[in-house]
Amino acid sequence: METQRTEPLFSPTSRNFQEALNYEALIYTSGKGEATIEPLFDKLGQCLDLSVPLPSHPHTYADAIGVPPSILLEGYYHAHARFQRLSTTDVVIKRGDPLFPQAAAVVAHAPRFLYVRGDLSLLSRRLVCVVGTRNPSDEGKQFARESSLALGAAGLVVISGLALGIDGVAHLTALAQGFPTVAVIGTSLIESYPPEHASLQSRICAEGLVVTRFSPVAKTQKWFFLLRNQLMSSLSIASVLVEDRDGGGAVKQAQYALAQQRTVLLFKHTLENRSILWPRRLAADPLTVVVGKPAEIPKLLGIHPQPPKPNAVKEDKNQLSLF
Question: What is the pTM for the complete model shown?
Answer without folding.
Answer: 0.90
